[in-house]
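[job 0412] stage=complex_fold ligand=NAP status=START
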Amino acid sequence: MRVVLIGFRGTGKTETGRLLSRLTSVPFLDTDALIEASAGMTIHDIFRREGEEGFRAREREVIRALPPGEAVIGTGGGVILDPANVAALRKGSTMVLLEADEAVIEKRIAASTRPPLTTLPLREEIHELLELRRPHYAAAADFRIDTSLKSPNEVVLAIRKFLHDGTVPLQARKSLVQFFAGSGIPESEVAEARILTDVDLWDPRTCLYGIVGYPATQSRSPALFNRLFRQYGITSHYLRFQDPDLLRILRLAEEIDIRGLSVTIPFKQEIIPTLTDVELHADAIGAVNTVVWCGSRCFGYNTDWIGIREPLSDHRGEKAVILGAGGAAAAAVYALQSLDMEVTILNRTVEKAASLAERFDCAYGPSSAFDRLNPAVVVNATSIGMEPELKSPLQKHQLRSSMTVFDLVYTPPETPLIRIARNSGCQTIPGTEMFVRQAAAQFRHFTGIAPSLELVRSAME
Ligand code: NAP
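[job 0412] stage=complex_fold status=DONE, emitting structure tokens
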């Protein structure tokens, strides 16, 4: 057993950790105590002499050097803010998040001599930091317990019950397998999903994630995320939910205590009213492609725009044309405008281009207007070029060697547009670049770990 306790100060990590350690005869390692021992100073003195930065550096070092094997590990409240810490802590561990009401936390820590992290009054500091950290706690946790009204004994019992039984009842897993069998996903994936109901193979600590879409069979996310989970030693499994009825999938998701979902066509807008919290970028784009649950809260994010912005970050202020006016085009407009580009949207159905342009206050026109614009950056956000119909939205005579051409289509990895653009001397960016970057950002929302792009690329092969 290797259990890592995470959570805000005053949620009972130390007391719970000591008791769990005593009852299971597994050593208790408290990272704050280890930091004090290695520094030869109290945490108060480390903050006074080296500031929060110095403390975080020492904390990183202690986390990195934790011995492997069985242990109960208690951590500091801000440890989950650093994705490298989360990667080190998650390997082979069960991550347990302890939570408590703000008033309970205030009462428990009021007499503490620990230095404050802000200049705010204690109650406000607790509220502010909790709001900031909640998504990070949600991402890093396998299991969560509200300790507000529980004794340390009850908390330990809840942890042991989770380790033994998990949170996904057998009946819910059986219904899930039945759903997969009738959903049109590949037979090999249905067979793989039967592990969920196999008492010998099912690990009760497994947390479930998945993609929702209709169709969803083309997505490479299940293979990618399952490889990343294995790579980081995380006991989680990623599934494929294909159904025309989003609410049916969400009901099923609730029964199996799903932790996170990737959202694809046609549900990126439809899912929004079902969420409790939608981040700023997703709200501006009007689409959510990532959902993470944490108790009664349900967080929605958009990572598509990150996958478009990052490869174009050297093109700040340039003139750009976006082909298409659907969901991917909205993320592209948002990404390019965040780089101060002058954007024109061109689309087959010009009314859709007009309505998207009105939302983002930019220019628009019909697809035929391309030849008059001479842009420096071209983003294809139409589905032209997708398998099996291999066509290009632009022809060779329309391209100049000065252009950078980004094709968001990623099946096939080399589209006809990318081939023609390369032959015309353009700089080219394939859709796999967007996929890899949006997936890396999504994995961070799901797990608190920031995988390198090289690792995500290699996991896609
Ligand atoms: P969408 O909302 O359905 O929009 C499709 C767009 O393509 C619309 O503007 C549509 O024009 C246009 N279009 C489709 N067929 C056309 C044709 N034959 N001629 C001219 N225009 C055509 O789809 P989406 O979600 O925006 O996705 C668009 C593409 O982005 C897809 O190929 C998808 O694979 C890709 N994508 C890639 C990633 C990645 O990670 N690389 C992520 C998301 C999306 P009308 O308005 O006239 O119908």
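The chain has a mean pLDDT of 95.
[job 0412] exit 0
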